[in-house]
Design goal:
This protein folds into 3 domains: 154 residues, Rossmann fold, CATH 3.40.50.2000; 214 residues, Glycogen Phosphorylase B (Rossmann fold); 95 residues. Helix 18 packs antiparallel against helix 19. The model has no long low-confidence stretch (mean pLDDT 92). By secondary structure, it is of the alpha/beta class. The protein is 47% helix and 14% strand. GO terms for molecular function: ADP-heptose-lipopolysaccharide heptosyltransferase activity. One of its GO terms (biological process) is lipopolysaccharide core region biosynthetic process. Keywords: Glycosyltransferase, Transferase.
Length: 516
């Protein structure tokens, strides 16, 4: 089968679609990739891709300013080119935005996995994992799954462990990287540590002074070559780093293409980074990392898809913070994690080959590892597995995996850690209300089909349930799923009742876990 995988998002997300591409190709499919033109260089790093089709987004926007008909022609020409050369039997669309849905529909009609539109123009997802991918993007703090695994499931694969192996840098990129390192002259005994100082927003950047203090401590105790990577816009951060750190430093910010950046990262012994695309580049090349997850960033969904990496987030009750409100604490999380503690963890890793369990002042420390089903998971190194958020994420991993796979709920193989009593009672009351409301909605759905006067009551109950879940710090993702499925084309009464019962089984599974 010829498949076009469509990912019209940014650098990191594009790289994280690699395991889905590899599984599709391993099943005997020929996989092409449609991506934004400005990330075509990153697309060239993906293995198992037969051809890359870059969408000229800049040309589209320029045409849109002049004449919408020219913009439409640009997109139509692109779609025609993809259709003629790739001859897709199926499109796997991992981008939820309306233009991406339209493009997928234009390319392959109804033969779309992931995000699309139905024949009447309603939003449609091929499976509930795709719906979850979009729903969880607004409440990232509640997402218990690594986005790579969600991509895999949305693409219709994801059985067993994912394989995240990017294409190795070609000879030209490797030679260019070697030339950049030649002047630095690190010996074989010197640990080469990469530092990615920037992030998508300043609120998600660990202060440069802390990166520099970490580098100084590592150089003092072990001797390192610091390699600063990043975009040209991050040059001021690199300059500040060099002002503070007086050890050997190779500043490559703004000095590499994406292929050369991959070759540089492949030469690192370790990457220390904020939550960025460079993190996922390192993971796909098998390079271990230490990552700082600050502000809205959290490691459970965008952590590295590589076992044995250290993920650090501030040990603060407000972390991760919401996308929907300004920080009331002046971004205090930026200064929460102690660089001395990070240095000691790295030194232990150098000595023993693993990051140690113990106290990480100011941080929750997690080690990336796989769970029994092959999904990427996190194991606490700092004793935070008993906190309410961690316990609830663990419960969600169990229940939502079955709910999204549409399989009957089964109890966990071994008991999960309990929520603290206050949180357990609060959530138990919420779930009891939810189960009662779902029974009411199910009964009203049947009556509404026979009696139009009942429709208002049915809709009121339907919306009441959505409001109940939306207001909860535990079930807001279910609310998003519930509301998004309501935006699809209306299903028949049997389909609607089946959907309501599916949510009822999910709520009952959560309640059963709380009862122990």
């Amino acid at each position: 089968m010829n498949i076009v995988l469509q990912n019209l998002t940014r650098f990191g997300d594009l790289l994280q679609s690699q395991p889905a591409v590899s599984e599709l190709a391993a099943a005997g499919n020929v996989v092409s990739l449609a991506c934004l033109e400005n990330f075509a260089g990153a697309a060239g790093l993906l293995a198992d891709v037969s051809e890359v089709f870059p969408l000229p987004g800049a040309k589209f926007l320029a045409s849109l300013d002049l004449d919408w008909k020219l913009a439409l022609a640009t997109v139509a020409d692109f779609a025609d080119t993809v259709a003629t050369r790739a001859r897709p039997d199926c499109v796997v669309n991992l981008t939820a935005a309306l233009p991406a849905r339209l493009m997928a529909r234009r390319l392959c009609g109804e033969a779309v996995r992931g995000f699309t539109l139905d024949p009447f123009g309603y939003r449609h997802e091929s499976n509930l994992w795709a719906a979850f991918l979009e729903a969880s993007s607004t409440r990232r703090e509640l997402c218990p799954f690594n986005i790579v695994d969600v991509f895999r499931k949305a693409a219709g694969v994801g059985q067993g462990p994912g394989r995240f192996a990017l294409r190795r840098p070609d000879a030209a990129a490797a030679e260019e990287a070697a030339a950049l390192f030649a002047g630095a002259g690190p010996g074989d005994e010197v640990l080469v540590v990469g530092f990615q100082l920037g992030a998508s927003a300043s609120a998600r950047q660990w202060p440069v002074e802390r990166f520099a203090r970490l580098a100084a401590r590592l150089h003092e105790k072990r001797g390192i070559l610091a390699v600063v990577v990043g975009a040209a816009s991050e040059k001021p951060l690199a300059a500040r780093f060099r002002e503070i750190f007086d050890g050997p430093c190779l500043d490559l910010s703004g000095a590499t293409s994406l292929p050369t950046l991959a070759a540089v990262v492949a030469r690192l012994g370790l990457l220390v980074t904020n939550d960025t695309g460079t993190l996922h580049l390192a993971a796909g090349l098998g390079v271990p990392s230490v990552t700082l997850f600050l502000a809205t960033a959290q490691p459970f969904d965008t952590g590295p898809y590589l076992e044995g990496c250290l993920c650090l987030e501030p040990d603060m009750p407000c972390h991760p913070c919401s996308f929907r409100q300004a920080c009331p604490r002046g971004h205090a999380c930026l200064d929460a994690i102690d660089p001395e503690a990070v240095a000691e963890a790295v030194l232990a890793w150098v000595r023993d080959g693993r990051f140690p369990a113990g106290v990480y002042p100011g941080a929750r420390a997690w080690l990336s590892a796989r769970d029994a089903e092959g999904f990427m998971d996190l194991v606490s190194l700092s004793g935070h597995e008993t906190t309410p958020r961690a316990v609830w994420l663990r419960c969600q991993r169990h229940v939502l995996r079955q709910f999204l796979d549409d399989v009957p709920p089964v109890p966990p193989a071994r008991p999960l850690l309990p929520l603290p009593e206050v949180e357990r009672q609060e959530l138990s009351r919420l779930l009891a209300q939810s189960i009662d409301l779902l029974r009411l909605v199910e009964g009203q759905a049947g009556l509404a089909m026979r009696n139009p006067a009942m429709k208002k009551r049915f809709l009121a109950s339907y919306n009441r349930l959505a409001g109940l879940w939306s207001a909860s710090p535990y079930l807001a993702t279910l609310a998003q799923l519930w509301q998004r499925q309501a935006q699809e084309e209306a299903v028949d009464i049997d389909g609607l009742v089946a959907r309501i019962r599916r949510y009822g089984a999910c709520a009952a599974a959560f309640a059963a876990i709380l009862r122990g």
